[in-house]
Amino acid sequence: QMQLVQSGAEVKKTGSSVKVSCKASGYTFTYRYLHWVRQAPGQALEWMGWITPFNGNTNYAQKFQDRVTITRDRSMSTAYMELSSLRSEDTAMYYCASGDAFDIWGQGTMVTVSS
Amino acid sequence: NFMLTQPHSVSESPGKTVTISCTRSSGSIASNYVQWYQQRPGSSPTTVIYEDNQRPSGVPDRFSGSIDSSSNSASLTISGLKTEDEADYYCQSYDSSNRGVFGGGTKLTVL
Q1: Cβ–Cβ of B44/A62 closer than 8 Å?
Q2: How far are the Cα atoms of A74, B3, B13, B82, B87 from residue B40, in angstroms, in the given order?
Q3: What tens digit of pLDDT does each residue of A61-87 get?
């Protein structure tokens, strides 16, 4: 079945970077947008950006434009989201999701940022 | 850019019908498809409606979606409410630059 499996929880220091992976299986990785969405504790979903795995094109939310980089490795059917200059407000669950209608979601990766 | 505004919470009794609204602040609600996601506590979201009114396979026909240009809003209607429907619901669309936009979420209580 189609699924996305994300890397494990991370604890980071303020000012550092985090890189989360998302491995796709059960479908052709290059055929679907791959989005990143985050959710701070008790808060709403927040779209961060997407990548088209076929050619690596990206599109980022203006809020994260300067700090986020989404990449992919086609040979591994894996996408990555790197967020830099971390601050406490970046403590959140980070999800990857596939397709125009986000119809496949990863299990989420908890990123905790502390000083 | 635009915002999608949802009620913070709604509640209804089992067996009844509830409608959750999602109002677009600027631009036409019909400009881009609207999706709806269900998120139960501690779980990843799942799609219950895509492309305004389409149901993924496996989603019961108790769930329906619509858009209303006069109010510039989308709606998710759940009929025959069950306790298992208790969850947070989010609407989502895209802007003219194909960037995603989520609503603030609605907590549905079935009591």
Answers
A1: no
A2: 32, 23, 18, 14, 5
A3: 999 999 999 999 999 999 999 999 999
CA distance B3 to chain A (A): 12
pLDDT at A115: 87
Q: A30 to chain B, minimum CA–CA distance in Å?
A: 18
pLDDT by residue (tens digit) across B3-31? Answer: 999 999 999 999 999 999 999 999 999 99
Torsion of CA B9, B11, B15, B21, to 10 degrees: -40
E strands in chain A: 3-6, 10-13, 18-25, 34-39, 45-51, 58-60, 68-73, 78-83, 92-98, 104-105, 109-114
Q: Distance between CA atoms of A38 and A49, rounded to whole angstroms?
A: 10
Q: Which residue has the tokens 């895509």?
A: B50
Bridge partners for B46 per DSSP: B38
Q: Cβ of A102 and B90 within 8 Å?
A: no
Q: Using an 8 Å CB-CB cutoff, list residues of chain A that contact chain B.
A: 35, 37, 44-47, 49-50, 59-62, 95, 97, 100-103, 105-108
- B44 — contact with chain A (CB < 8 Å)? yes
For residue B90, what are its two tokens?
């989010």
- Encode pLDDT of A3-56 as tens digits: 999 999 999 999 999 999 999 999 999 999 999 999 999 999 999 999 999 999
Contact B100 A103 (CB under 8 A): no
Cα–Cα distance between B94 and A12 in angstroms, integer?
A: 31
